[in-house]
Amino acid sequence: MPAALSLPTRLFSRLAVLACAWFALGASAAQVDVAGVKLNDTLDLRGSTLQLNGAGVRYKAIFKVYAAGLYVEKKVSTPEEALAAPGPKRVAITMLRDIDADELGKFFTKGVEENSPKSEMVNLIPGLLRMGRMFSDQKQLKAGDSFTIDWLPGTGTLVTVRGVPQPDPVKEPAFFNALLRIWLGPAPADWKLKDALLGK
C-alpha cells in the first residue's frame, strides 16, 4: 500500500487539479461557436484589446453564407453607438460556403448604396472601387476562408484576406462606417445578423 502523501504534496496536487479545471473553463469561455466557426471573446488589434460585441450568420434564403463577428473596445447595443464608438474596430468574416469573390464584392457595394446617405456616395466611390478590385483579384472565397475589415485610427480601413493585409488602406472614417452599415444600417444584409452583432 503506497505511503500517505504528505500535506504539502496533497495540497499541491489539489491546487494543480483546480488550476487545470480553471484553465479548461477559461479556455472554453474564451471562444464563441458560430455555425462551427470559433470566434475569440477578445483579441489584440495593434495594442488595443477589443471585445466580441456579437456574432451571427448571414443567410441568403435558407443557405448559410458566412459567419460574422463585430469587435469593439467597449460593447455597444445600437447602430449609432457602433458607428460613433472611438478606437479600433473589426468585422471578422468566415465563409460557410464557396462564393465567387467578385459577386461578394458586388453584394457589399450594393449594401453600402442601400444604407448610405446619397450625399456621402460621391466620397465613397474611390474606396468602393478599390475594394471591388480587391475582391475581383481574389477570384473565389471557399468555405473556411476568412477576412477581416479593420478600422485603425491614424491608418484607415484595412482589409485582410486569408491573413494577408491588402495594400492601400482607405483613410476616411466615413468609409469604414459605410461598410459597417452593410450589417447595421436601416436595410441590413440580414436582420437577424444585425441583432446578433449588436448582442441581442
Spell out the blueprint of helices and strands.
Elements: H1 7-29, E1 31-34, E2 37-40, E3 42-45, E4 48-60, E5 63-72, H2 79-84, E6 89-95, E7 99-100, H3 101-115, H4 118-138, E8 140-141, E9 146-152, E10 156-161, E11 164-165, H5 173-184, H6 191-197
Helix pairs in contact: 3-4, 3-5
Structure description:
The protein has 200 residues and is of the alpha+beta class. It contains six helices and eleven strands. The chain has a seven-stranded antiparallel beta sheet with strand order 3-4-5-6-9-10-11. Strand 1 and strand 2 form a beta hairpin. The radius of gyration is 21 Å and the shape is globular. The N terminus is likely disordered.
Assign the structural class, choosing from mainly alpha, mainly beta, alpha/beta, alpha+beta, or little secondary structure: alpha+beta
Q: Major β-sheet, in short?
A: 7 strands, antiparallel
Q: Total number of β-strand segments? A: 11
Compressed to H and E, one letter per element, the order equals HEEEEEHEEHHEEEEHH
Low-confidence segments, ≥5 residues, pLDDT <50?
Answer: 1-5, 17-29
Q: Going across the biggest sheet, name each strand in turn.
A: 3-4-5-6-9-10-11
Number of helices: 6
Q: Which percent bin holds the helix content?
A: 40-55%
Radius of gyration using CA atoms only: 21 Å
Shape: globular
The overall pLDDT average reads 86
The share of residues in extended strands comes to 25-35%
Termini separation comes to: 58 Å
